[in-house]
Amino acid sequence: MEKKTLKILEYDKIRELLKAHASSESGKKLCTEIMPETDIKKIKEAQRNTSDARNRIRLKGSSVSFRGAKDVGEALKRLEIGGGLSIAELMSVSSLLTVAARAKQFDRSSCTDGDEEKTDSLSELFEGLEPLTPVNQEIKRCILSEDEIADDASHELYSIRTRMKHTSDKIHSSMQGLLNSCRDYLTDAVITQRDGRYCLPVRAEYKAKVPGMVHDASSTGLTLFIEPMLIVKLNNDLRELYTDEKKEIERILERLSSQLTPYISEIADNVRRLSVLDMIFAKALFANELDASEPEFTENRCIDLKAARHPLIPKDKVVPIDVRLGDGFDLLVITGPNTGGKTVSLKTTGLLTLMGQAGMHIPAMYGSKLGVFDDVYADIGDEQSIEQSLSTFSAHMTNIVHILDKADSHSLCLFDELGSGTDPTEGAALAMAILNFLHNMKTRTVATTHYSEIKVYALQTEGVENACCEFDVATLRPTYRLLIGVPGKSNAFAISKRLGLPEYIIEDARKYIEAEDESFEDVIQKLNDDRLQMEKNKEEIESYKKEIEILRGRIRKKEEKIDENRDKILRDAKQEAQKILKDAKDTADKAIRNINKIASKQGTVVGAEVEAEREKLRAGIKKNESGAALKIKGPSKPVSAKKIQIGDGVRVMSMGGMTGTISSLPDRNGNVFVQMGIMKSKVNIKDIELAQEETVTATIQNISMSPKKSNGSRSFAPKAMSVKPEVNLIGLTTDEAIPVMEKYLDDAYLAHLDNVRIVHGRGTGALKKAVHADLKRLPYVKSFRLGEFGEGDTGVTIVTFK
């Protein structure tokens, strides 16, 4: 790719934004040097890398930092020739190995699904990292900072520093004694050092009073810094120890360097891998910032951008555009008013192509497609601004000549205001000739223009398509939307009017337009009106489609509910029939036993008794036959939809008169939801009747008197008849939800409900934990569990009372 094109399309700015997301110096360097690839396999691999990095960040919740991954190339060269490393160089290698270990840990934690480890396109890069943990730990143990080696780095160093401390203590003790005895001869009562040797500041006139070696004098000459003879030997010993310490530190550094020497290639490979990984994760973070997506790449160099956004324009200001090129036409001519978005559309197409071929995700919708081009050429007015054009015709033409010389069928060419800057007639002719030349070469080309002649050329030439930047005539403002298939108007009169040009001047200008030109503009306007009507019709059709899908879903659910109810009724009927058959068998067996018993009596008349038993048998069988018939009674008194209220007690006749509570008002079809225990069913109001209050009261009293409920701790209150079988805590905080739940559970317990549902939702799980913790301490709760499939799953807790 030519550097000039990269600059015109502002690709350098993209690289700088990408660089800001890298954390290592070597990674930042790769970001600033990244170039678009032309090999489709390498492009797809780079795109896959970016996608996998984004997926790892999503699973982990954060990215991995490569800060500290130093470029240790010079240090490795010194190791290769047998040299030793300095403290700073060893610390740089240690920092690099620490980042490698951190990256390995991130790999293990970000590429697992439960207990199962998965691999992706980045696994090979991560797996090849060598943290060299034992060597790195040894370096960290020995080197505390750039200025300090640990005392225990070696036994010899520890011994030397121990002796240094003892010698230094002796010197201070001796110097302190001299300080006290010679205080009258001293300028200051302090112990100082000169050239690493301990001295006393003695007044010059008392030099003879303090025998020793003079190491220095003050600027006035009044003070001499004398090393007392008493400690000369101790100072000499200390200097020797300092020398021994320095030599021992050098031996330690040589030892650490020698431990790294066998791993020179591994360390160099770590540098390369960490730099590449840093760049890949920078692409991922940049893509997340842009809300970008991975584009598809086509072999036939087709472009299909959906809701594409220029990455350098703020999200709240940029208008997404759709761009197509290469499928049915290889030349796109964009027309429209100035400042209407033509140049932005041009730059967006070129810049997103460069970003995609560099392995970066593009700010466009999923499913967007890009072609792979060997070169991208651009001739766009001012290379520093999108809105202005300051280039001369000659400068434009020089650039165009270069493009025509280099471009071929594997190139993408972008022209802004092609043919402008000269006589309109000649400029339009030149523009059409240039576009025709590129069209004959099958070069993918996008050009913007104001010339009506080029619009006509696009309409008349196969493989060439018109497009326009939409202009709202009502507001006299551009919408910045790119519309393919419709030529645009320049709208010069409308814009001039909005900017305040007098109406009479505009009307006078219209007289100078040729009739054919005015007719052509009218045709364009009619096409635009037809397009708007078609878009409106399309939106209505899409709305109808969505409604149909919703209705289909409702019908499907209703059919599934009917099938479920039918299966339940059949199961209940089968169980009832089996019970009736068993009762009939028991009745027959009992009658046979009685008949045999009567017949066994000897010497008595048994005919009448046998006949009586037969009658009992016939009556029992007849009773069982009548019970076996499955009859569904309708409601004795129809229920009005207007009178139904939430909380009313009802019987569902199609389900054997099962009682329940209304939990929703009737819809337009007369359907309501009835809560029956832990089961909620949708039924029609024609299938229900209001339960009598006396019956409900009697039922509750019977339940309260039964042995199962006779614990004496529950009594019935009138409001208990309206207690719902569930409470919804969604939307409440933990502090708000617990009092609401406890109040509800008290009412439900007094109403003698066996089971209730607490709806807390899934969310973060905090509300569910609080609910379960509170349920454990309530004395009247027998047990609780999470809902099963059909009950609300883990978003619901089923509570059973004692």
What can you tell me about this protein's structure?
This protein is of the alpha+beta class. The chain is 49% helix and 16% strand. Strand 7 (212-217) and strand 8 (223-228) form a beta hairpin. Helix 9 packs antiparallel against helix 10 (232-260). The longest helix has 85 residues, at 515-599. Mean pLDDT is 82; it is low at 383-391, 602-606 and 694-721.
Mean pLDDT: 82
Strand order of the largest sheet: 14-15-16-12-17-18
Main sheet characteristics: 6 strands, mixed
Radius of gyration: 46 Å
The number of helical segments is 22
The helical percent reads: 40-55%
Oligomer type: single chain
Please tally the β strands and state the result: 27
Termini Cα gap: 78 Å
Poorly predicted ranges (pLDDT <50, ≥5 residues)?
Answer: 383-391, 602-606, 694-721
The geometry reads as flat
Structural class: alpha+beta
Strand-residue proportion: 15-25%
